[in-house]
Model the fold of this input.
Amino acid sequence: MKKTDMYHVALGERSYDIRLQSGSLKNIGEAMRDLFPDAEHCMVISNTLVAPLYLDVVKESLEASLWQVFEHILPDGEHFKTLDTWSGIMDGLMDARLSRNEPIVALGGGVVGDMAGFAAACYRRGIPFVQVPTTLLAQVDSSVGGKTAVSHPHGKNMIGAFYQPKLVWIDPDVLQTLASNQLRAGLAEAIKYGAIWDASFFNQIERDAQKILALDDTSINQIILASCRYKAEIVMQDETEQGVRALLNLGHTFGHAIEAMTHYTAYLHGEGVAIGMCMAARLSEQLAYAPKGTEANMIKALQALELPVNPPEFTAIEWLDAMGHDKKNVGSHIRYVLLKKIGEAFIAEHVKNQDIERLIASYA
Done:
């Protein structure tokens, strides 16, 4: 049997385990039976891309452990992360009549996990859910920490709740069917932890880029486990993002604006974050927070991962308007996560609109 790595997210009564094991997808039913011994039904929420690949494996595992399984399949794509799609999930839950102790299984990437988690938070004022992430981005970031949401035309993830899963079940083998651009997008979130927290981890990802992109077992497992550990440690300090957890948004203020301005169809989330981290690095240099060369180091690492580094062309007014709708803002004040150096991030409270205008002008 392959080795199981486990990390415990200690949040009192909301605590849960992250379990990582290659080939473990077929064992999810037994794990859930141990976790919910008295439950009879569950609902697997997936999408049109993932379900044909892995839904049968998950259902067979669940049914072998005496689960009665309902399923709800979402359309695939960030632009379907809407209240209308979420409402369809709620209709499915109503039809299935799940009770308050019967769980949802989120089988998919970040969009599936976020929407299934938000549905779990709202249905009957809260039922349990389990994350089974199938993209690298979800495995290293979005499946951990309890952020659940849908997007709105005015901004990404504007409607949601902090609601922790009962288990995060990670099988790295599912990455073998992941599209290469999705793999690279996930690596943007992984290298983010190095940029804000640990320069050696940042350098390791850059150094091992080709092995990681080739899905070398040892390299990819190390990246996933370390990323989960970094994320969990921050979440345990600040579950609802009142302080240090906001550092995890490095690159996201710009990245979310890119996604919104391009209507969630031109860039994957991780691609937007990659560009956003480059923009944050340049702004950090321009404001003399970070030494010269910080942006160059960021660009070099992200290019090693074959990620985009140049922002799309929009006016400063368009950038500021899009970022003004970001959920991380305080009142009308836009909050930016910037760098003092690779490996040390901070929340910049005094960035002016003129600073952003100068930043955008520097790309002309």
